[in-house]
Amino acid sequence: GIDPNFEESREKVGEENGLDVWGPVDEPEQLGIHGSHVAVDYDICVADGACLENCPVDVFDWVDTPGHPASETKVEPTREDQCIDCMLCVDICPVDAIDVDAS
Ligand code: SF4
Ligand code: F3S
Predict the structure, then answer these.
(1) Is the CB of 49 under 6 A from ligand 2?
(2) Exposed, middle or buried by CB within 10 Å (0-12, 13-18, 19+), for 41?
(3) C-alpha torsion sign, points 101, 50, 34, 18
(4) End-to-end CA distance of the chain
(5) Residue of the nearest CA to atom 7 in ligand 1?
(6) Which of 93, 96, 99, 100 to mutate to test the pocket of ligand 2 (most atoms within 8 A of CB)?
(7) In this predicted structure, what is the pLDDT of residue 24?
(8) pLDDT at 83 (0 to 100)
(9) How far is the CA of 27 from the centre of ligand 1 (A)?
């Protein structure tokens, strides 16, 4: 699953859709982690969709990631600033791709 210490173990390599991106990134096969308060490891996400469908405050949007080996869409935590730290997405993701920093 996602490394909960990614902000220490990885480097911020840029921004996309207003969110921090944490490397390494080597498109299209390696996409890194997107977001900070709500963080999605794009290299783990398999586009299950349970996070997006069940988030009570609609934090996530689908984005296309053609050529990624795990799935060709991912969820972007576009509205991570709206997150209420319910932890539903963290608990429901079948591949443990999401970290929410509720501290
Ligand atoms: Fe949405 Fe809850 Fe996940 Fe925050 S912790 S992104 S509010 S499901
Ligand atoms: Fe991806 Fe997990 Fe959501 S696989 S779409 S982060 S439920």
Answers:
(1) yes
(2) buried
(3) negative
(4) 19
(5) 83
(6) 93
(7) 98
(8) 98
(9) 27
* Phi/psi-derived region of residue 30, left when phi > 0, alpha when psi is between -120 and 50, beta in every other case: beta
Structure-block tokens of residue 67: 């050529």
Residue 47 beta carbon below 6 angstroms from any ligand 2 atom? yes
Tell me the domain boundaries of the chain: 6-100
Fold of the domain spanning 6-100: Alpha-Beta Plaits (3.30.70)
CA of 32: how far to CAs of 39, 56, 66, 73, 97, in Å? Answer: 10, 25, 15, 14, 11
Q: Which ligand is nearest to the CA of 38?
A: 1
d(C-alpha 63, C-alpha 17), whole Å: 10
Q: In order along the chain (103 residues), what is the average pLDDT of each group of 10 residues? A: 97 97 98 98 98 98 98 98 98 98 85
Q: So what's the pLDDT on residue 7?
A: 97
pLDDT of residue 67: 98
